Structure formats: C-alpha cells, structure tokens
C-alpha cells in the first residue's frame, strides 16, 4: 500500500490501542489508590512508583525472551494475553459491589480489592514492559533493506500512535472515573475507567493477531545484551584470577575478556560502557518527571478546576502531551537554530544538562504553588482545643459572651462569625443578650472538635443548641459538602437536585451531603404541603463546605443564606501549567536529546543495549522516589518538592562535570577501523598459512 507493507497498519493500530490502555489506566491509578482503596498520599505514591518501576524493568526480560527463545511475534502475542488479563483483573477488583451490600457505606472488605488490584498491576507491568522493546522492532522488521524512507515514515506513524493513544486516554478515562456507578453503592466509576482500557487492550491483541499471515517473522538470533553481560562478567572474573603482580597489566580491564571473546565485541562493549557510565546520574531526572502522575495529580485534587467546564485532577496530566506536540517543532525549528546562530556550541550533553535544570525548576514552581494551596487549608482544633462558630438566624441583633469572660461578639441578623479557637477546659457557657433576651447556656464540648451554635431569639428563649460539625478535613477531588438549616417556623422537605435531605423540623440541621464542584448551579427545593419553593444555588466552587439557611419563601421563590464552613479551593489548576511547561521543556531537551545522543554514540548492533540501559534509568528513578519519600520525614509537601529540586540540581552539576570529560566518537569510524584490523588479521593468518604450507613441502 503506497510502498508500505500492509502488515504495518495492524502494528500501528495495535500500538495506539495498547498505549490508550496503559496511559488511560495509569492516569486514574493514584486516585484509585487514595479514594477507593483509602490509602494515604504516601502509600498511594509509593505503590504507584513501584508499579511504574516494574513497567520499566520488565522490558529487559521481554527483549531477552524475544531474541533468545520465542521471537518477537510470539512474545508480543503471549505477553499481550497476560496484559489483557491483568487489565481485566484490575477492572474487576475495582467493583465495589464485590464486597459491599450497603448503599451508604464504603466497601467493608478492602483485602479482596487490594489483592485483585495488585495481581492485575503485576500482570500489566509484565505485559506492557515485556512487549515494549518488541513492537517497534517488529514493525521495523517488516521492511526490506532498500525501504529506509518507508521505515522512517513508519516510525513517525508509530510515535504518533503512541502520543495519540496517550492524549485521548488521558481525557477519556478521568471523565469515566468521575461518573458514578454501582448496584448497592454509588461510587466513582473505576470499573468503567479500568474496563475501557481493558477492552482496548483486547482489541489491540485481536488486531495484531488478525495480521499474523502478513507479518515477516524473523527467527530469534540471540540477544546481544546477554553477550555483553557475559563478556563483562568474564573480564571481571578473569582479572580477579590474574590479580597477582606477576601478570602484566592490560590497556583496559575489558581486555581481560580477549581469551574468550573477539576483539570486535570487546571494542564495542568499551564504547557502550562509556555511554552507560554517563547514564548513572540520569535516574534522578525520571524521579521528578514521573511524579506528574502521583504527587502533581494529588496536588490538583486541592485546586479549583473551573475552566468554564470542570476539569478533573487526573486530566491535568494531558498538559504534558499537548505541550510536547507544540514544543518539539518549536524547539527544533526555532530555539536550536537561534542558539546555533549565536555560535554557541550547544552539544547534546549540554542540552541534557539544561533539561535537568529545567526539571529542577519545575519542582520549585510546584513548591510555590503548594505554598499557596496550604494557605487555603482550614485550621482545625489541636489537642485541648475546641472551635466554635456563631450564626444569628433571627431578625434581632445579639451580643454573645463566652464565659468566663473570654470573648464578646456582636452579631447582626443573619450574620455568622468565623471559627474561634478556645481551650476546652476554660469554655464553660455562652451568655446571649439582646433588647428582650438575656440568657446563659451551659456548654459541654469535646476537645479537637468543631461546633456551630446557630440560634434564633424569640419571646420563648434561645433555640437550638450547639451543632457538632463532623468535617475533619477539607473536601478533596473538587467535592463540596452541603447541609441545610430549616429557618422556617414549620417542617419542610428539602432536596438539592436529586439528593433528598429529608424532612427538617424548625431550626434542625441536616447531615452533610457531597456534591461535585461544577460550573453551573444546583436546584434547591423546600416543600411543605401545599406549597413548594425553589431557587438556583450559587456556584459552590471546588473543595468547600457550606451550611445553607432556608429563610422564607416569596412568590414560590426560596430565600436562602449561605454560610461558609470551609472555604473552597481558590488556587486554580491553571497555576500548574508553568510547572508542566518547565518539565516538558526539560523532557524535550533531556529525553529526546538523550536518546539521539545514545544512538549516535553506539555501534549499530549495540543500540538495544543502550535502550535497555535507558529504560533501566527510568525504573531506578521511580525507585528513588520510593526511597526519598520513605526516608524523608517532611510534613509539608512543598518541602518535599524543594528536596527533589535540590537533589536534581546537585545531580545536574555532577552530570555537567562528567559530560565535560566525555569525548564524542563516530561509531562508523570505529566500525571501519575494526573492519580494517580484521582484514589485516585475516591477511596475516593467510600469510602464515601459506608459509606453513611452503615449509611442509620442503
């Protein structure tokens, strides 16, 4: 088809579906850990990065299996089956109805969900990692040697399929997660968010198998990584055996492998090791980069996602692939040429150093955003303390004094105070006075709790008493908590959209109910036979808690007063864009340049070794996240961001020093030199053979 083997279209579609499956699942994973499995931020982050590390360790296993035993086709098919099963198991494990028979309570047996989720993730890591090095190489195998242009176009299409799958899935699966589903318990729809990627992975497998008869299948020819590993191992062992001074030193420690391995392999291994040595500092970059899906997503849960439409926290990850699509051509066609015109020798290693610096600055930006987020968090009472807030629901001004003579507050009609902190042991009573009322109310409050004292002055006294506010933290994931106080003189039934708060007697308070933040209003309805009044609510924002007083009804229009229990998130998610921009620019300079540099410095048959080494740096980077977050006892998230930024900055300096000592090589020249040496060796052997034959004739 236009000079392309028809088989490559099956491979491109396969890659699109597989990347959709992987990135779609990964986009919602950390929120699944936090909100469904009820793990804290640190544990959710740790398990997330453990999973990502496994995904980048298993490609080495997949490459060895494909090159040494099964071949690429069978490896892709078998591990795709494992992959699909893993996605299905994860989806089933996220079904709350497996263990939950109560509509109002969360799953009461998390052990089953955790077990299924971990089994599913292990199978996914084995599958996605195992096929990662095989699919692109298998696509390259479909072309003949004289189809270089078509092969290049294929890899462009292949890369487009990867980014398209990632981009679309990062939009779709968070939206699926945000819906509610379930038979006994309505919760976030993780089964659908994981189920759609599972279906796409099954489609990926089916499409790949359909093209089976069209594929050019190359038989396994041995794995060069194993040969290199054996060569290095033998050199070390042989050098250890001959460590005595009586054995002469050799020019390079790898030369101790010359007794068993040919000069070409030893020379090529030396070149590869020079590049792999530069890889040592690289994992620190990935330690920061992969926190987009963990810490940065968790950061977004405490932010305002109103962009005209509601953006979910896990959808902010889409900023990275969008910026990649925009910035790669800008950097290649504008930034690099401008730098070249300025006669700056911007070598690949210098680009990588700048990329690491930009990633470090991205975490400084994340820390600054986190400081602003922390300012919006409410202060809850500590040990020995109680918080109390006053609301005057009546039409008469009142003065409230906290006894014994702690504080005095004047309240106008329908006015509320903020939460005031008192030592629990000292707060004994409230004295409320107005023109017609003078009354003292004893208080029996508990430590570390919040209370609202909503009162209404009347000729019969003061009603009601203190209300315990059972909210102990700021609502997350853009949710709002809403409750109602009935300020009518008679009982009313209260609803807000489809949520029924039941019947409220005069001056009684409903329980809190959760409502997602959104860019439009809810319908509040109060009814009592024979009348019914409605009003459109205000826009609540994201992450707030509100008490709404139902005051009266005028011409079927409900009059309400809003009291802010917990302020909504005021830091907008758009403030994450600068940190994503810096990290994406760092990725372009670090990752794209790093791969190009590695390939330009390695012999043609050693590129798979460097690919394995590159993937290994990603795995080690995620392990570093586990170590740092586990070892550091920082209580503030912004401090952890600063710590990671500082660590990468130090590593960046070390890498710059290492890079300054590196000498760039041309692998083609080395190959030509090796070919020349082999010709000379062969000529010497032929000459020796002729001399031996001549001697034997004499």
UniProtKB/TrEMBL annotation:
Give the location in the cell. Answer: Apical cell membrane
Basic and acidic residues: compositionally biased ranges = 680-698
Q: Which InterPro entries match?
A: MFS_trans_sf, Oligopep_transport, POT_fam, PTR2_symporter_CS
According to its UniProt entry, the protein's GO biological process terms are: protein transport
Q: Where is this region: Disordered?
A: 675-698
Q: Where are the annotated coiled coils located?
A: none
Q: Which parts of the chain span the membrane according to its record?
A: 43-64, 76-95, 110-131, 152-172, 192-211, 271-289, 318-339, 351-371, 609-629, 641-665
Membrane topology per the record? Multi-pass membrane protein
Name the UniProt key words of this record, in alphabetical order: Cell membrane, Glycoprotein, Membrane, Peptide transport, Protein transport, Symport, Transmembrane, Transmembrane helix, Transport
Q: Which Pfam families match?
A: PTR2 (PF00854)
Q: Which reaction does it catalyse?
A: L-methionyl-L-phenylalanyl-L-methionine(out) + H(+)(out) = L-methionyl-L-phenylalanyl-L-methionine(in) + H(+)(in); L-phenylalanyl-L-leucine(out) + H(+)(out) = L-phenylalanyl-L-leucine(in) + H(+)(in); L-alanyl-L-aspartate(out) + 2 H(+)(out) = L-alanyl-L-aspartate(in) + 2 H(+)(in); glycyl-sarcosine(out) + H(+)(out) = glycyl-sarcosine(in) + H(+)(in)
**GO CC, alphabetical:** apical plasma membrane
Matches recorded under Gene3D superfamilies: MFS general substrate transporter like domains (1.20.1250.20)
Top-level taxon of the source organism: Eukaryota
Gene Ontology MF annotations: oligopeptide transmembrane transporter activity; symporter activity
Q: Which PANTHER family match?
A: OLIGOPEPTIDE TRANSPORTER-RELATED (PTHR11654)
Its family remark reads:
Belongs to the major facilitator superfamily. Proton-dependent oligopeptide transporter (POT/PTR) (TC 2.A.17) family.
The entry describes its oligomerization and partners as: Interacts (via extracellular domain region) with trypsin.
> Its function?
Electrogenic proton-coupled amino-acid transporter that transports oligopeptides of 2 to 4 amino acids with a preference for dipeptides. Transports neutral and monovalently charged peptides with a proton to peptide stoichiometry of 1:1 or 2:1. Primarily responsible for the absorption of dietary di- and tripeptides from the small intestinal lumen. Mediates transepithelial transport of muramyl and N-formylated bacterial dipeptides contributing to recognition of pathogenic bacteria by the mucosal immune system.
The name this protein goes by in its record = Solute carrier family 15 member 1
Q: State the encoding gene.
A: Slc15a1
């Amino acid at each position: 088809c236009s000079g392309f083997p028809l088989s490559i279209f099956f491979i491109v579609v396969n890659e699109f579906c597989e990347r959709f499956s992987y990135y779609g699942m990964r986009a919602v994973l950390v929120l699944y850990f936090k909100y469904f499995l009820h793990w804290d931020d640190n544990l959710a982050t740790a398990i997330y990065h453990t999973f990502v590390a496994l995904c980048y360790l298993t490609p080495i296993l997949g490459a060895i299996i494909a090159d040494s035993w099964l071949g690429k086709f069978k490896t892709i098919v078998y591990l795709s089956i494992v992959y699909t099963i893993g996605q299905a198991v994860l989806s089933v494990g996220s079904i709350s109805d497996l263990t939950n028979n109560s509509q109002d309570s969360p799953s009461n047996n998390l052990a089953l969900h955790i077990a299924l989720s971990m089994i599913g993730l292990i199978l996914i890591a084995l599958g996605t990692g195992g096929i990662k090095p095989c699919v692109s190489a298998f696509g390259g195998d479909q072309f003949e040697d004289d189809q270089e242009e078509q092969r290049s176009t294929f890899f462009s299409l292949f890369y487009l399929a990867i980014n398209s799958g990632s981009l679309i899935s990062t939009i779709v699966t968070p939206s699926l997660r945000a819906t509610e589903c379930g038979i006994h318990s309505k919760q976030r729809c993780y089964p659908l968010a994981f189920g759609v990627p599972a279906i796409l992975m099954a489609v990926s497998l089916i499409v790949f198998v359909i093209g089976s008869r069209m594929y050019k299948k190359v038989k396994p020819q041995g794995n060069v990584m194993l040969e290199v590993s054996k060569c290095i191992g033998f050199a070390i062992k042989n050098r250890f055996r001959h460590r005595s001074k009586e054995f002469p030193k050799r020019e390079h420690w790898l030369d101790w492998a010359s007794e068993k391995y040919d000069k070409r392999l030893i020379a090529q291994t030396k070149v590869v090791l020079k590049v792999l040595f530069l890889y040592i500092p690289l994992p620190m970059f990935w330690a920061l980069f992969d926190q987009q899906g963990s810490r940065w997503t968790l950061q977004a849960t405490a932010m305002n996602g109103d962009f005209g439409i509601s953006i979910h926290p896990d959808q902010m990850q889409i900023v990275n692939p969008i910026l990649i699509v925009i910035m790669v051509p800008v950097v290649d066609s504008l930034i690099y040429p401008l730098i070249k015109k300025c006669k700056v020798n911007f070598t690949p290693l210098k680009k990588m150093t700048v990329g690491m610096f930009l990633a470090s600055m991205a975490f400084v930006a994340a820390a600054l955003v986190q400081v602003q987020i922390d300012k919006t968090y409410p202060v809850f009472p500590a040990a020995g303390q109680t918080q109390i807030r006053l609301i005057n629901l009546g039409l008469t001004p009142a003065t409230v004094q906290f006894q014994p003579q702690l504080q005095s507050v004047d309240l106008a009609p329908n006015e509320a105070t903020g939460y005031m902190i008192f030592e629990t042991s000292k707060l004994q009573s409230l004295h409320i006075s107005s023109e017609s009322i003078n009354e003292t109310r004893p208080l029996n409050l508990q430590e570390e709790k919040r209370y609202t004292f909503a009162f209404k002055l009347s000729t019969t006294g003061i009603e009601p008493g203190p209300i315990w506010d059972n909210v102990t933290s700021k609502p997350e994931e853009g949710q709002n908590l809403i409750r109602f106080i009935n300020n009518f003189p008679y009982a009313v039934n209260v609803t807000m959209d489809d949520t029924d708060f039941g019947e409220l007697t005069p001056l009684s308070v409903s329980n809190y109910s959760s409502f997602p933040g959104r860019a439009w209003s809810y319908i509040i309805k109060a009814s009592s036979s024979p009348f019914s009044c409605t009003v459109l609510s205000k826009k609540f924002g994201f992450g707030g808690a509100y008490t709404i007083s139902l005051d009266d009804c005028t011409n079927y229009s409900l009059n309400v007063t809003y009291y802010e229990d917990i302020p909504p998130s005021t830091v907008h998610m758009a403030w994450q864009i600068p940190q994503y921009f810096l990290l994406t620019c760092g990725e372009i300079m670090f990752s794209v340049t790093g791969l190009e540099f590695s390939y330009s410095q390695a012999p043609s048959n050693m590129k798979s070794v460097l690919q394995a080494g590159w993937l290994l740096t990603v795995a080690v980077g995620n392990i570093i996240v586990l170590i740092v977050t586990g070892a550091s006892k920082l209580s503030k998230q912004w401090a952890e961001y600063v710590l990671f930024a500082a660590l990468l900055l130090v590593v960046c300096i070390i890498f710059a020093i290492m890079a300054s000592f590196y000498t760039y090589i041309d692998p083609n020249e080395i190959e030509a030199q090796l070919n020349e040496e082999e010709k000379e060796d062969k000529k010497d052997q032929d000459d020796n053979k002729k001399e031996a034959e001549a001697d034997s004739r004499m």
